[in-house]
Specification:
Shape: elongated
Distance between the termini: 8 Å
Radius of gyration: 33 Å
Number of strands: 24
């Protein structure tokens, strides 16, 4: 017997009412026969993994019960993108020897906080390395170059912060000898440049100073040490300003913009924290979008967010959209494990399939996106189903595409 889509909805509704009535009758019988009856929630297609009743599959149709059919339950939600990364200082720099040097003095220790302009160490140029075409007093050779190789941005060819330390250009400044002085990251260090020039003219000694207030990390030299070119000397980082970098598909570029608020969590931390998108950069093959998120420095984050922490956040985009709620048994060809832990949302929407009964009463295997999991109801929010459809909960063979639904 064939039913229209309206008839199927009516059968499903009546069936639900009959089931509820039978549960009420059963409950009354239990109460009448037993002094302490156990309580139980009614079992329906909407709130449990019901055991499928047999399906009758023919060449052109599939006969099923109302238990296999679910009406669409529309619900509103805010689209968002997941962002994941590790906390790093925004301002950081590695000091690397441009040519062989002798370390005369180390004036700081590892983990020491230093102010801008603080002497870090002194080095002496190894005169045997001077080019033969230059006179001994010529000062065109440089002792140490500064290169911001600690930043992921350098790997991507991105200038991290133009208003802070301007990193040297990739090849020319890191490999070439620079003129007259110790070259730091910005023009504010002209006094340091002059000091270095004067020192070289008198004794080939150079005092290296901090170009910004920071903490000394990875101190790898000691007094009296002779070092070769390209040897790392130390790393400076300012932990008072932090950020993380997340990677998105390049298609997300239209959905995110500088200035957007990002709410995120950190490992081993209960509080939620706030960040702000500071930069977007496309790079790589295939092309990806790198999203830079500055941590908002406030009372919540100041003493809890530290370099090296892994964080997961979300940024909202677009207008409110409409999805639908379904049980797990409605979803096919998807691993839902990632949704079963906070924040119960995937970094990217999960692709899945669902069986839809259309207005012509025929089955369609439709692709959808899984947006979120509700651990209280154990149901899933999905997008991609129209409100005028019915959802088939049966686990059908793929050959069921296009067959007509019969309800018994």
């Amino acid at each position: 017997m064939t039913f229209s889509i309206r008839s199927i909805r009516s059968v499903v509704l009546r069936s639900a009412l009959l089931r509820k009535s039978s549960y009420v009758l059963s409950a009354l019988l239990i109460i009448g026969c037993q002094p302490s009856p156990p309580t139980a929630e009614p079992v329906t297609a909407e709130n449990s993994e019901t055991v499928d009743t047999p399906l009758i599959i023919t060449a052109d149709s599939i006969t099923m019960t109302p238990d296999h059919i679910l009406s669409v339950k529309p619900t509103r939600y805010q689209p968002s993108l997941g962002l994941q990364g590790s906390i790093k200082p925004i301002k950081k720099v590695n000091l690397i020897a441009a040519q062989p040097l002798t370390v005369e003095q180390v004036l700081v220790s590892k983990n020491q906080w230093v102010k801008k302009g603080t002497p870090l160490f002194t080095v002496r140029r190894q005169t045997t390395q001077i080019k033969p075409t230059l006179s001994p007093n010529d000062s065109t050779d440089i002792d140490v170059s500064l290169n911001d190789i600690a930043s992921d941005n350098e790997k991507l060819g991105v200038s991290e912060t133009s208003n802070r330390a301007a990193p040297l250009s990739k090849k020319a400044d890191t490999d070439a000898n620079l003129t007259h002085s110790m070259v730091t990251e910005n023009d504010e260090n002209s006094d340091n440049v002059q000091d270095a020039t004067t020192a070289r003219q008198s004794s080939n000694l150079v005092t290296v100073r901090a170009s910004f207030s920071s903490r000394v990390e990875n101190l790898s030299v000691q007094a009296g040490q002779q070092i070769t070119a390209d040897t790392p000397l130390l790393k400076l980082s300012d932990e008072s300003e932090l950020h993380f970098v997340a990677t998105l598909p390049i298609e997300a570029e239209s959905q995110i913009s500088v200035g957007q608020t990002v709410n995120f969590t950190a490992e081993e931390r209960i509080d939620k924290f706030t960040g702000q998108v500071s930069n977007l950069k496309a790079a790589g093959q295939p092309t990806q979008l790198f999203v830079y998120v500055n941590v908002v420095n406030n009372e919540v984050s100041r003493h809890q967010i530290l370099p090296g922490m892994k964080v997961i956040g979300r940024v909202d985009y677009g207008q409110i959209e409409v999805g639908t709620i379904v049980p797990k048994r409605a979803l096919h060809n998807v691993d839902l494990t990632v949704l079963h832990a906070p924040p119960y949302k995937p970094l990217r929407s999960l692709s899945a399939h669902i069986w839809i009964i259309g207005q012509d009463q025929r089955l369609t295997r439709q692709p959808i996106e899984v947006i979120e999991y509700d651990p209280l109801t154990k149901q899933y929010l999905i997008a991609g189903v129209s409100n005028d459809s019915l959802i088939c909960l049966a686990n059908l063979p793929i050959e069921s595409e296009g067959k007509k639904v019969m309800v018994s």
